[in-house]
Amino acid sequence: xxxDLFDRILEAARxxxxxxxxxxxxxGGFPGSFWETYSAMANSEGGxxxxxxxxxxxxxxxxGLSPEQAAQHQKxxxxxxxxxxxxxxxxxxxxxxxxxxLDGPVLLAIQVPRATRTQRPVYLGHNPLGHTYRRHHEGDYxxxxxxxxxxxxxxxxIPPDHRIFKGFDxxxxxxxxxxxxxxxxxxxxxxxxxxxxxxxxxxxxxxGWRRERTxxxxxxxxxxxxxxxxEEAIRDTDAVPGYFVDYREKLDPLLRWTDRVxxxxxWEANLFQFYHRVWPKLAAGLPTPFxxxxxxxxxxxxAHEALREAFINALIHADFLGVGGIVIERYPDRFxxxxxxxxxxxxxxxxxxxxxxCRNRSLQKMFSLIGRGEQAxxxxxxxxxxxxxxxxxxxxxxxxxxxNRVELVLPMVSLIPEETLAHLRVMIGVTIDSLxxxxxxxxxxxxxxxxxxxxxxxxxxxxHPVEISRMLTRLCERGLLVSDSRRRWATYSLGAGEKAxxxxxxxxxxxxxxxxxxxxxxxxxxHDVSALLKKLAEPVSNKGKAPVAHVREVxxxxxxxxxxxxxxxxxxxxxxxxxxxxRYLTPMVSEGLLALRYPDxxxxxxxxxxxxxxxx
Length: 616
Description:
24 strands; 6-stranded mixed beta sheet; Arc Repressor Mutant, subunit A; single chain
């Protein structure tokens, strides 16, 4: 048990039950609900169960146990954790169970690790169906049979993409896809010995065709069908009927999407074709500085390598029998990659890097042979480093359940953009100078992503989760953040819960790039500037409806001599931000009434507008 357990228990007791902490009284005996929590934590991210603590109405009371009770409960635990009639698997060693004295109260602390892929599911009794649990916030919920079966499939030592599909053969493959794969392999390794093999033998080598060592069964594997199959064969009711791959480009807010690649009958929608159709579109969303290596121009950067790794990961880690298909989205300021399934390693292992647990190993091998994807567990590090070198915010990984899906967001936004820093300075004044780097990062994250949490800050900061929790509490006590609860899984928004209104309260226009010299320009006139802008906006902000021409005139007045963003204008005018952008700002730019602060990057999320002299 960690040496800092004493402090961690006190900290956890202060914030209440969470995803990774559970308190049970145990004064009347060993709690029967203990084993449900044990199963739930083992099948999630692990956690600590404390006996001798009572929680009521969100308040935690350290009632404690007598030394005799603690010893009895400890013996009862060890007797039953090894009993297959009680629980399927014992995950603990002696150092995971401790009797702890907290200056009076005696507690029994049991630290439950996350079960490995092959140990899951951890269930009660002899039947996993109906007796397997997972943790969600501070509660334990029973998994349905379909979820348990997917967990059992992931635990199988034979990867799912090794499965042989009987009744399928080479006629179910797209010949062009297999030929193009050969060409890619030849261009990378022209003397590779597999290039001379006939198709079926090449497929055997790369995992697309398998012959069982016992018996006479052989045929196309799931990997071979997914990588090279025709769409009709892949989506056959005996194969992967729910298969779907989808690329969505959303660069214009006026359109549902500006480009889309999905199975539509015009191409064979296997993974090989999907990758080669979508990758150039994704790569086009990254900046490509002119760079020479020797006499050759290099068009790829570390960010390109990171994005490609993330793309390949979404393909090879997907649970193709899961729900929802693979969805890849490109926005002006971020990429979002989502695939069905669960994370096969813990969040801690993911963030630490160097651990590889691939759901579809043959698919991984196929992409790796043509120089796409890592096999040594360094893919996550490549993704993070590529983004870090561009000084962008760290990638954000989230796992969703019901249905199980893994989502990776790659934001192309600076850790603390200058404009965000300027807005924060306006919002909290000189207080910003007293903030630590971690506190400033927490406020900037709340501003940029609307909410901040302990889990998200663990991706951005080197601090221990307990230190992050204490920091968030301090920011709440100072009124700089507001929590939606006092639990560790809480989310936080900027002060008073009105992030946008507070952050973009225009107490200063000089930080927006405009010329405020006619207003005095120094700090003694900041509130005069705010009052002036609000006064200019009143003819629109105080009315439910206003003539279009009137709104356009007010926008030009507000933007005269300064740059304002769509979000700032929406707060001043008391109008929906999308309505302001789509109905007014975009047309006014086209007509030359407004000019862009960043004309070479129209879709920047921090785009701002200033008035020209053409109105009237």
